[in-house]
Amino acid sequence: MGNFFEALLTFCGVCGMIFAAVYAYRSIFVAVGLFTTKVFPKTDRLHKYAILVPARNEETVIGNLLDSIAEQDYPSELLTVFVVADNCDDKTAEIARSKGAVCYERFDDKNRTKGYALKFLFENIERDYKISSFDGYFVFDSDNLLNGDYISRMNEAFDSGEKIITSYRNTKNFDDSIISSSYALHWMRSSRTEHRARSVMKIPTRIQGTGFLFASEIVADGWKYVSFTEDRAFSADAIINGYNISYCDAAEFYDEQPSNLKIAMRQRIRWAKGHLQAFVELGGKLFRSIFKKKATGLERIASADMFFTVFPHELITAFTTVLVIIAFTGLIVFDCRDFIEALEVFGRSILRFAKEYGSHVLLSAYVCITEFRHIKKMKAVKYVWYVITFPIFDFIGYAASLIALCTKVTWKPIPHRSDLSINDIENMKRKASEIKK
After folding, report:
1. How many other CB atoms sit within 10 Å of the CB of residue 239?
2. For residue range 351-398, what is the model confidence (pLDDT) as tens digits?
3. What is the CATH number of the domain that holds 80?
4. Domain presence at residue 436
5. Which domain holds residue 13?
6. The whole model's pTM is what?
7. How many domains is the chain partitioned into structurally?
8. Strand ranges across the sheet with 102-106
9. Are 100 and 70 in contact (CB under 8 A)?
10. Containing H/E element for 134?
C-alpha cells in the first residue's frame, strides 16, 4: 500500500514540475511589468462612444457611476450611456433615466447572466440607433466609478489603432476585510504582472469583467457571449479572430469587492464554472489556431498564451493538492511504523504548503510595493496584514474550482452597498496627499 501512495506523491510532483515549466515564461511578464507599460500619445481626434451598463437592483450605486461619467473631461455630446435594468424590482431604471441614460428594461429570469443582458442591450441599440453609429463601446458594472480623465485616456489608446483595450482596476473598499483586500491586490496583480508587459510586447492580454472598450466592428452582428464568464469567452474569441487586446495603465476606475466569505465563494464558484465553460467552448479552437498555416509568429504566441490562460489550471492545482493530502494521509495510516515516521510525513506536507503560501505572500508584497500609490493610505501594520492574508484569494479559487466541477451552478447577484462617489475618493486622495506633505 505504501508504494501506491509514494507513486501518487511522485505523480503529483511531476505534474507540479510540468506546470511550473509550462507557465515559467510568465516570469518574463512580471519582470517587464516592473519597469514599463505602454504609453499612448495624446490626440486631438475624439471618437463617439456608447457606454453600456448592465444593472440588476443597483439603486444604491448606479447613480454615482453615472455621475462619474457625467463629470468626465471628455465632450458629453460624444457619449451616450445605455443602461439595461435587468430583472429589476427597485429604482435602478428610474435613477438611470433621471441621470440622462437611455434605459431599457429586461424581464427574463431564466437567462440571467450579464452576457444575456448585454445581448439584449445590443439588440435594442441596433434597432433604435444602429450599432455602427458608435465608434466604440465601453462596458462597466454599475458599482464602478471613473477617474475624471478615464475616457480621454482610453480614447488615446483607441485612436492609436487599438481595437480592444482594458484599463487599470482599483478598489473602493480595499480595507473592508481581508476578503476585499485580497480581491483588490488580485486586480493590481493582473495589471502589474499581466497587462503591463503584454501591452509593451504586443501580446494580447485579457478582459476581466468590466472597464474595457472595443471597436463597434467587433459586435457588428451583436453580442454572442452569454456564459457565466462572458469576459473570458470574449477574450478568447477575439484572439481566435486575430484581434489584439491592449492595456491602458493611465485609465483608472474603481469597483466594489465582496467583503465576506459567503459572497466571495458565490462569485468564485460562478467564475470557476464559467472558466470551465470557456475552455470547453473555445480551448480547442485556440489550440488549433496556434498551428494555423497563415498565422504569424506573434499570432501563434498570442493563441498559445490565451490557451494557457483559459486552461483550467486552478482546477488541476486543486485536484493534485487533494491527491497530495490523500497520499500523505495514506502513508501515515498504512505505511508509518512509528510516531517519528508519521511526523516526518506530516512535516513534508506542511513544508509543501508553506512554500506555496510563501510564494503567494512574496508576490503580494511585490504588488503592494509597486502599486503603493494606488492603494488607500493606512497604518503600516494593515499593509503587512493584507499582504500576509492575500493568498486567501487564490486558495478560495482552488476550492471554488472543485465545487464548480461537481455541482450545478446558477447565477446569483453580488450585492453592492458602497455609496462612495468619485468625489469622495478624490477627497480622500487629497487629504492623504496633504498629510504626506
Report:
1. 26
2. 777 888 999 999 999 999 999 999 988 999 999 999 999 999 999 999
3. 3.90.550.10
4. no
5. 1-431
6. 0.93
7. 1
8. 102-106, 79-86, 49-55, 136-139, 212-215, 164-171, 245-255, 145-146
9. yes
10. none
